[in-house]
Amino acid sequence: MGLYEELEQRGLIAQCTNTEKVRDMLNNDKVTFYIGFDPTADSLHVGHFLQMVVMSHMQKAGHKPIAIFGGGTAMVGDPSGRTDMRSMMTVETIAHNVSCFKEQFERFIDFSDDKALMVNNGDWLMGLNYIEFLRDVGVHFSVNRMLTAECFKSRLEKGLSFIEFNYMLMQSYDFLMLHKKYNCVLELGGDDQWSNILGGIDLVRRTTGDEVYGLTFTLLTTSAGVKMGKTQKGAVWLDPNKTTPFEFYQYWRNVDDADVIRCMKMLTFIPLETISEYAERPFG
Q1: Between vectors from CA 80 to CA 77 and to CA 83, what angle results, nearest 5°?
Q2: pLDDT tens digit sequence for 19-56
């Protein structure tokens, strides 16, 4: 079984820009890919963990991950999946959160011997000349097309700030920079990032003529479609000081029976054959 088929059978793949090409790359080539993480808190949560699991699957198959931390994009805030505007954070808070992310990432991804990279998009976004950015990047984006993106469309009735409207351009520019600097050819992300990923692919093609690709993975939800990773106290964090090991254990211990096999497929590295055997056993 190839990597693409394993990710597919684990229920991780949601959408892909060119299924045939991406399947061939994942199964037969060694490519550089990236996933972005905006440091909106001082800890990663279980939603991020799902993304790190995908990164680890990819790395174990010989591909090179780039974890990009949004030191620049966090200054704006991603409107995707939001009903209101994110609170503005200071540069100092963002820098602190990035440092926390880095410590947690090193527990899950192997960064030794250039097997993976951690980069901060603040390194190229914070020093941009706005007029040059509009001329070089903004010219390639259609406002009409952007307004059809789900991340913007769902916000139009309640209000979408101009600063948030820039987010897609900034994330797209990230893909362009990573393609130029590291020959990154694939962006991964949650399914709510589909529109932003398409923006980056289009920008790379228009400015370099190169073909790059995108793949989104399924968001972590229950069988009823409810987003997982939330408790009465809030998010389930990876920081033991924010969610204790006991609370973390109890959250997964209390997962509904109907969601156990799905979680095993998506969040563990247990072989699919073994999971199938568990699926045949009666619960209770």
Answers
A1: 90
A2: 999 999 999 999 999 999 999 999 999 999 999 999 99
